[in-house]
Input
Amino acid sequence: MTTLKIVNLHVSVEGKEILKGLNLTVRTGEFHAIMGPNGTGKSTLSQTIMGHPAYEVTSGHIYMDDQDLAELSVDARARAGLFLAMQYPSEIQGVTNAEFMRAAINARRPEDDPINVMDFINKLDEKREFLSMSEEMAERYLNEGFSGGEKKRNEVLQMMMIEPKIAILDEIDSGLDIDALKVVSRGVNEMRSDDFGTLMITHYQRLLTYIVPDFVHVMMDGRIVKTGGAELAQKLESEGYAGLRNELGIDAHLTDEDANSYFVEG
Amino acid sequence: MNKTVELDMPIFPKVRYSGWHLDEIEPSLAEVKERHYINDQAFGIEVNGQATAYQHVPDALTAQGVRVMSMLKAQALCPELLSQYVGQVIPATTDRLVAQNFHYFNTGIFVYIPDDTQVDDVLQLALNHVATQGQDMMARIVIYVGRRVKLSIFQQMHTLGEVKSKASVVIEIIAATSAQVTYANVDAFSDVTTAYINRQALVTEHATVNWENASFNDGNVITQLESHLRAEGATSHAEVIALSSKKQVQGIMTTVENSGRHSVGHIFQRGVILNRSKLVFNGIGRIIKGAKGADAQQESRVLMLSRRARGDANPLLLIDENDVTAGHAASVGQIDENQMYYLMSRGISKKIARKLVIRGFMGEVLAKMPTKFAQQLIIDEIERKLQDENETS
Ligand SMILES: Nc1ncnc2c1ncn2[C@@H]1O[C@H](COP(=O)(O)OP(=O)(O)O)[C@@H](O)[C@H]1O
Ligand SMILES: [Mg+2]
Output
């Protein structure tokens, strides 16, 4: 079993404190969801776990089992078993999707023992078909000219190819129509095992009807303010973030959209 | 070299090369007879110094009058044909370095493709600098592509030997009416070669010459690349990639001159600079009065990968006609940190991520190289230069 443990995490971006003492533990075998209004620090949390250089940990720790992630570079964190499906994946012209994924897999293997090309192609074909992605996408340049939905699918494809221990999925549902959402959810559910845990970040409850979480955490103003089971997402659906905020007596500012709307699809 | 000294040296903005003494050249008679860079059975020729190390033209093409031979052979076998073309694209009196090459070249390649010839294979030309004795290479390549011919050329240049010396290479291409030429080259002289390279094409009515130029030399080099769009509908896309490393200077000046109506000239340059090296892109789009409906565009981007790298991208549009479309963009920047982060977040090491980003940056030209060998050569050259980078810094 692998455990991702976040202890009293404070993070600043450009001198402004965004995460203000966040605690969370995710184990392999568990599906967690974090929900929260826009601008509350959900992407900041995911980027900080992965090690993005713009996010400064001012106090607190993130551990993978006994390893303090502060000591690991971004690529070493990934090789330790972390994966982040990004809200805004980069486009890289001139590097094909297939070449990129092969480099990612080989990075986890001894230098003199790269993955057999046929094994790689077979695995890629299998996962790609599972996600209803066309054959030509393997030879297309990495995310270049991909639609929003294609990018999300491609993030999930990479996750299925790399088989991480803990995957953070930052809004993989945004911009997806219902069919694409079902496909992407199928991919994540396919990964469910004792050796895989996930932390799904979402703004909307909709995703959680397709990928049922074991735990739901509500994040506001840089902290987790409430934790529950799948039913907490439903409660949020009917009451909205404003309702919860008032109930908990938190002094958090919500954008108009978050305060007034009740999970209308974005 | 008295015949030439009264002419001026060519102007390369932002590159100081007078200390390279390119106008003091001693034409070498050296030769290497073994073939190094062309596969057996390939359509083409390899010339090493004064020796022809490989030559093959399929019988069917020979029967149609196709000629691919060393310059020495052409001077002996078909001097009249040759003399119709030498100096046609680049007049001998253009500048001191052109004149010097015109008067003293003693090796090179001549290619003649008659009108309407159907050529299926890529024409491969290798011209290597034999640097074994300290004298210099003085070479000229002249290529005539007949009317309506479609031809894809892959040309390479390397150094054989370890003795510091110079190379002057002038390349002239004539694309007759409606000819379609792709000219891809990998210039990969080693650090013992200080070079002057000048490639120019004369593009006639409805003809196209597209350049895919890869400058991966290790020594100091000035390279001129130029298309003369002389007639209605002439087209040229000049695409350049360059990688500079260690302490070298590479100055590249790419020019497209539109004098034909509705001629189209696009310049696209991508350069990467490592270590303490220098790379300068000068892009010049010149539209001559009367070239109505002409289109001149250019885009040059340079990535500096070390604090001590020096780079420049200078676009210049000289327009003497109103009824045209023209535009330019240029930038000098650093590697995209978000791309690096994205790749590394998948477990890819910084070293490999950097290589992928650099290769990606040059990907558009890489993808257009006409043979797998040419693509692999560039990928290997990128790898080699990055390897050298780690050893020196
Ligand atoms: N890279 C960044 N540069 C500057 N500000 C940032 C950056 N990332 C996040 N922020 C700021 O941090 C706050 C939280 O943003 P984010 O983590 O993206 O929230 P969420 O994902 O919950 O919508 C916002 O005020 C945002 O502007
Ligand atoms: Mg976000």
